[in-house]
Specification:
- By secondary structure, the protein is of the alpha/beta class.
- The protein has a single domain, classed as P-loop containing nucleotide triphosphate hydrolases (Rossmann fold, 3-Layer(aba) Sandwich).
- The protein contains 9 helices and 9 strands.
- Helix 3 runs parallel beside helix 4.
- The radius of gyration is 20 Å and the shape is globular.
- The N terminus is likely disordered.
- GO terms for molecular function: GTP binding.
- It comes from Starmerella bacillaris.
- It holds the Pfam family Septin.
- Belongs to the TRAFAC class TrmE-Era-EngA-EngB-Septin-like GTPase superfamily. Septin GTPase family.
- It is found in: Bud neck.
Amino acid sequence: MSSPLIPLNTAAHLRRHKITRKGFQLTILVCGRSGTGKSTFINTLCDTDIATTPEKTTEITVRNRKIELGESDGTIISLSIVDTPGFGEHIDNSGHAETIVKYLESQFDSVLQEETRVRRNPKFEDNRVHVCLYFLSPSPRGLNELDIETIQKLAARVNVIPVVGKADTMTDKELLSIKSSVMENIESHNLPIFTFNYDLDNNYDQTEENDALREMLPFAVVGANTIYQVNDEFFRGRRYPWGFVQVENPMHSDFIALRSVLFGSHIQDLKDSTLDIIYEKYRTEKLSKDPQMLARLSIAS
């Protein structure tokens, strides 16, 4: 598999580096059926075993884990990982999307309640989710009914980015077919995923970069934390009888591009979209139905 390289010295990257160099907070929701590579991807992203494969459960649960990551340039990332053990694992999965949506809305409600206080809590934690990585099963048919229903509902409350895990288990031809089917399904059902159009600066460099990223959707990733050495080269990857798959090689995986989106090039876009569009829409809907809360907000302001 080949992927276009995302240039790391564009004006957009430099702008975001300036924004994030003092550290930032990001909350990622990871959703998808068991066996799609979610836990392995998160462990690779965090370079530690923060995610474990949960035991089979009788119902879906939502849990939040926090970790601080140190980047090579000194940036500190306060990362929250929200996962959903049990999603899609039962005979009747009809309520699973609603369970996740309720969690997302509960974080919005916490912020809204804080906004209505005359005296704000200086230690208040904003746990609004900035992006959902929705992991898909590698099917040539693309999305199934649960995927369509879940993405449709989640996209109203969070930026959704589709991901195909375990890309090393597919041939290039199979992977291209799966990517094509997924995007055809997304377009035919008008699913509002994050398509890298949110750019207040209307920057040409980022427009070009966004075009390349849209061509990669859904991101096809490989996860692994095992370090191999071949001659003088060290890399994370997986070993097969025919050779190696390198996690951070753009010819093998979209991992490095997705990591750049989350921790660099589009961190501010994801956060701005969450606060300025998704949360504001929810906030407006909530206040229109609750005149007392609107009055308290006016006093607090």
